[in-house]
Structures are given as structure tokens and as C-alpha cells.
């Protein structure tokens, strides 16, 4: 009999059960339409930039700090499915969202934030 198969029969099933993941910290509040409208015009772009980095991080399952502002969305790992998820999250939060093509072709997070600011205006 194959040694790997014998080893499989000798293992304790309880040993192969992964440990439960530690509880995650609560998600920080997301940007709301009211908060966006109340912000000064000069501050709105920064709010959207931070919000987009947060949402891109959630879609890609990484911290917002790991989302580089100067990389294209494609370089960040946003494809058609994750782009659609991102668009859906933006629309659910802010009530409007850029077209999927805009998300997929954005050359940077600030460029996407500027476009989203235009959409929300």
C-alpha cells in the first residue's frame, strides 16, 4: 500500500481541523453621501481617495494601507469580477458609481476618486 495512504489513515481527524480565525476588528465607518456633501470641495477628493482604498482593500482582502495610490487598478489586482464587486459596494454606499470600464482602466486611485467625485456631483 502507498505510504501516503497509510499515513492518511494514521492521522487523527482532529489534528486536521484548522484553528478558528481570531476575531477581526470592527470595520471603520464608510463614507456616507451626507458626509461627502458636507465636506468642503477641497476635502472631497481626499475623502473619496481614502474611501476607495478602503473598499479596494476589502475587495482584494488586504489592508487599505497596502493599496498603493499610484498604481493602476489592474496592477492592484482589480479584474472584471472584483471590479464589479467594487462598483456594487460603491453604489450601495454612495448611491452612484462609475462605469465598470472606468474602474478597470483607472491609472491610479486618485484618478478614480476624481471621476467618482464628478459622478457624485
Describe the structure.
- With 121 residues, this protein is mainly alpha-helical.
- The protein is elongated.
- The protein has helices at 3-10, 33-38, 41-60, 73-76, 80-94, 100-105, 109-120.
- The protein has seven helices and no strands.
Topology:
Layout: H1 3-10, H2 33-38, H3 41-60, H4 73-76, H5 80-94, H6 100-105, H7 109-120
Helix pairs in contact: 3-5, 3-7
Give the overall form. Answer: elongated
The poorly predicted ranges are: none
The total of beta strands comes to 0
What separation lies between the terminal Cα atoms?
A: 70 Å
Key terms:
121 residues, mainly alpha, 59% helix, single chain, 0% strand
Could you write a compact summary of the structure shown?
With 121 residues, the chain is mainly alpha-helical.
